[in-house]
Amino acid sequence: MHVPDGFIDAPLSVVGGVIATVGVGVCLRGARRELDEKTAPLAGLVAAFVFALQMLNFPVALGTSGHLLGGTLAAVLVGPYTGALCVTVVLTVQALFFADGGTTALGINITTMAIVTTVVGYGIVVLLRALLPARPASVVPAAFVGALISVPASALAFVGFYALGGTTGLSLGGVLVAMVGVHVLVGIGEAVITALTVGSVVTVRPDLVYATRSYEQPLEIRHTEQAA
User: What is the dihedral of CA 5, 6, 9, 13, to 10 degrees?
Assistant: First the structure.
């Protein structure tokens, strides 16, 4: 899904950069509320894991590529703001050091793959978490659905950018079919990996999963009277 240089025209690439800058700024402020002694170390591990997932790249028709995104996984584990920042760091490193995605299209890539995936994915997780039984294990199916939908949502966001400023001459219908069709399949794979990863962490250390914090019971301190 990485957008290369020249795939989207310069004016829209600037717009994508502005959207990404504003989004990252909001995430930096929001991450202050999410990061603590548990979340901070985990954020680094999540970024490394997402980096590894995104390096598994395979070609898609019409000059695009498909890979796992990791936005929902990151949001569930460390919070939506911190999760978006983790994916943003991964995309920036890939663009600058691995030529995976154009530098002029970095704003569009951050918008579609970091911001859209975490907003859509975590929004679905929050919605389903309210409908499912109030226990940490409920986050697992919610994360599955969130990841499943977030990937084609990201593809649709890219198609929107292409419709407004695509430069390749490829038909919009062809790009839509190629991107959304393939990324529905990618979404299934991402949903499985997200559910397995979240489920493994929830089973061992549910306290480390950001999306399960609302299920944590407050610590009660009880005083017992001693008999005289």
Answer: 0
